[in-house]
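Below: protein 1.
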Amino acid sequence: MKVLVVIDMQNDFINGSLGTKEAVEIVDSAKAKIDSYLVTGDTVIYTQDTHTKTYLQTQEGKKLPVPHCIKGTPGWGIFQRVYVSGCQVIEKPSFGSIELAELIAVIGGEDDDTV
């Protein structure tokens, strides 16, 4: 079984506070890739950059002083055109995610084909 991880394709990163035209331009190809995994029965996992209202007081917020992906706001949501209901979403407060690594290990088990 293969695993596709869709990293932080959230409103704020596509057309919100940190959005770019390049991010908008990859939406259709990202959706096609997601669909190709699902049609073969493979797994799709989304990550969701997640901050609190005190983001600007954090170490990251002091270096990137743009409020974004504040939990519960529209910008925090996964971009609707790429989201597929029923797929797992992992909230992460920083760049990496131990939870994601552990989930992939469980899904993949001993299967060396997991990517």
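Below: protein 2.
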Amino acid sequence: MAQGRGSAAGVLALVLLCVLLHGELAESAVYTVGDRGGWSFRSFTTGGWPRGKRFRAGDVLVFKYSPSAHNVVAVNAAGYNSCSAPRGARVFKSGNDRVTLARGTNYFICSFPGHCQSGMKIAITAA
């Protein structure tokens, strides 16, 4: 009988773990970068888009833009500060890219010549 109770407790623990994991995923938010303006100069020259938003690891950023005019490159802090994409950086160019935030600061730039230098870059810190 004790073995049966142990098995039931194990199954209950597994079900509880699945519910908690599902709840964590269900809490992820989806943000369209730049809101209606999308990933564009207009949205980022003021630098205000992320202001007032609370980002968490697992949240999704959606970058909407014209792929003939822009791209999105996930960079490190040095790439963000220097407006350069390090070797092996992940480049997005579909015009409707979805990026899941990692814990910490996530950096993105547009690598089209002059775009990042003109302010088309964003740093998002996810708790």
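Residues 28-126 form a domain with the Immunoglobulin-like fold (CATH 2.60.40.420).
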